[in-house]
Design a protein that fits this description.
This protein is of the alpha/beta class. The chain is built from 8 helices and 10 strands. The protein has one domain (45-232): Vaccinia Virus protein VP39 (Rossmann fold, 3-Layer(aba) Sandwich), CATH 3.40.50. A hairpin with a 7-residue loop joins β9 and β10. The termini are far apart. It holds the Pfam family Methyltransf_16.
Amino acid sequence: MTVCGFVAPRGSSNSCSFRSVAVAEDLKVDVVSSITGDFDSNVDLKSGFRVWECSIDLARYVHEHPAPVTKVLELGCGHALPGIAALLDSPNATAYLHDLDPSVLQLITSQNVRRLPASAAKRTRYVTGAWGEGLTRLLKGDAGLFGLILSSEGIYKQTSFEPLLAMLIDLLDPENGVALFAGKKLYFGCGGGTAPFMSFVEDYYSDTLTCRSVALFEDTRSNIREIVEVRKKRQGQ
C-alpha cells in the first residue's frame, strides 16, 4: 500500500551533479545528471531519473502558452520540467509536484527546484502517493482546485486512464482549468498512448470532459509524440 503525504524537500547535496536542458531558446533548466554516495541503492530511480522527451515537449508548450494560474499540479513529475516551466512563467502560482516515489522527490525533483530563483523555489510543495481517492483528498484539502494539471508519459498504459481522469474531475477548476497530457501516440505492448487515451475520454467521459490534440511532434527518428488538452465541459456544451 502506498502512503499519500507531503514530502519535505531535501537539502542541497554535494553528491549531485547537474546538466542544463534547453526547454526553449529562452529557457534552460538545470537538472540532476548523476547522484553518488548517499542514497538507498535499492530505490528504483530509473524512471524518475531520466528526462523523458515528452516532458521537454510539455515544458516547452507550457512556456510558449503561459496561463495566469495560481495553482499547478504535475502528476508523476520526476525531474518536473513542465511544472518548473509553469512555475517560472506564473509568478503568483504555487506548484504541487507529485511522484509515486518519495525518493525521487527528494533526490531529483527538489534538487532541480533548488537551482531556481528563490522566489520560485519557495512556491513549491512535494507530494507522494498512488493516483486515487487518497491522493485526491490530500490535494483537494490542501490546495482546493487547480487551474493547470500536467502529466508527461503518464498515459503509457490503459490502466492509468481511469484513476487519472477521476482525479482530474475532482481537482480541475471547472471554469478555466486545463489539463495537459504529453505522451507518445502509441506505447507498443502497454496499450496506452495519446490515441487510445483520447478514445477513452470520448467513449466514457464525453458528458463531462472535452479532449483535443494541441501539438504533434514527428521527427522521423522516434514514435510520434503528442500533447492532449482536457477541460471540463461547461453547462450547455
